[in-house]
Write a structure and sequence with these properties.
The chain is mainly beta and 195 residues long. It has a single domain, classed as Beta Barrel (Porin). It is built from one helix and ten strands, in the order αββββββββββ. It is elongated.
Length: 195
């Protein structure tokens, strides 16, 4: 309820500040988005570039970790790729979509998790390198706020594939369940109106 109230108030502010445009129906457009996402791997910021055509949208961008469960500190860089399908073809201000999301990240020296028991030395050891691939499917919505600005929110679940390399060539592969919640804003850079 608070999220809905916040979106409505923000929409009123944008409309009063910049003038609410009538919604244009697009067959094609490209845009930039700025998202904050919380997933199994941590909390991240995702700047993306999006291309939309007739109900189908592809997003590609970066996944910049602000907090990572495997490592202390900031700065783990990864990639983000997604596909979204809009059943209503974005013909109204409020549009529901179904999506597939892919997140990939890699880093050296997992400081927190995971760790394994070294039987010979009788101590816990951490991996030298961690590769993480998250594949998620989910549902979300976009809300047109006018002036080419839109808000988005989605919820996804899926599987995380985790490859860990330890010293002395020990390797471990693990599949885990994962989820992701994303909030963001987008801005349409160029479009072609429907005929």
């Amino acid at each position: 309820m608070r999220l809905l109230t916040t979106i409505v108030c923000f929409n009123l502010f944008i409309g009063q500040s910049f003038g609410q445009d009538a919604y244009d129906r697009y067959t094609n457009f490209y845009s930039v988005e700025s998202n904050v996402a919380a997933s199994f791997a941590g909390l991240g910021f995702m700047p993306t570039f999006s291309v939309y055509r007739s109900g189908h949208k592809i997003d590609a961008g970066l996944s910049i970790k602000m907090y990572d469960i495997w490592q202390d500190g900031l700065g783990i860089l990864g990639t983000y790729l997604s596909y979204k399908y809009y059943p209503n073809l974005r013909k109204s201000d409020f549009s529901l979509y179904f999506g597939y999301h892919n997140l990939f990240s890699t880093h050296n020296k997992g400081k927190k998790f995971p760790q394994i028991q070294d039987q010979l030395a009788d101590k816990m050891i951490r991996p030298d390198k961690v590769l993480l691939l998250e594949n998620l499917v989910g549902i979300g919505f976009e809300y047109n706020m006018g002036n080419n600005l839109y808000a988005l929110c989605d919820f996804s679940v899926g599987a995380a594939l985790d490859w860990e390399t330890f010293k002395d060539e020990d390797r471990r592969f693990e599949v885990r369940s994962t989820g992701m919640i994303r909030f963001g804003l987008g801005y349409t850079l160029g479009s072609r109106k429907a005929k």
